[in-house]
Amino acid sequence: MDEITNVPKLHIDDAWSFEVWPIVNKRLQEQISVYKSEVKKYCVRIGFDLERMRKDRAHHQWLALFQCRGMSPKNIRDWEQENHQRKVDPTAVSHAIETLARKIGLERRPGRRGRSRSR
């Protein structure tokens, strides 16, 4: 099942009919509250930890380095060590790239074949 097609959508079902704003605003806020609840349930279902992702953007950086700069998971491991003094396993980097790309619906670029040319 493709989870991207199941993403909750916000639908405002309301029409203003010369009412005072606080009454309209209350109805809209109720609909927004329902939407937020649906988004939270969706995140739980797909295993997306929103709070963790808000705090740590490392996986986003890794995906950008992989997609845009053409870096391999081993290059990203080295970059992470040099720039953030964190040791990460290239397998973990590869898994994070794949998982995040899938969750946001991004088709990964093909991996490089053969020996690295940077040596």
Layout of helices and strands:
Blueprint: H1 21-46, H2 50-55, H3 58-69, H4 73-84, H5 90-104
Helix pairs in contact: 3-5, 4-5
DSSP helix fraction: 55-70%
Total helical elements: 5
Mean pLDDT: 84
Characterize the main sheet. Answer: none
Tally the beta strands. Answer: 0
What does the radius of gyration come to? Answer: 21 Å
Instruction: Give me the secondary-structure category.
Output: mainly alpha
List low-pLDDT spans: none
Percentage of residues in DSSP E strands: under 5%
What is the 3D shape?
A: elongated
Count the domains.
2
The H-and-E topology, N to C, reads as HHHHH
How far is it from the N-terminal to the C-terminal residue, by CA?
A: 43 Å
Tell me what you see in this structure.
The model has no long low-confidence stretch (mean pLDDT 84). The chain is built from five helices and no strands. α4 (73-84) crosses α5. It is mostly helical. It folds into two domains: 1-6 and 18-54, no CATH class; 56-104. It has helices at residues 21-46, 50-55, 58-69, 73-84, 90-104.
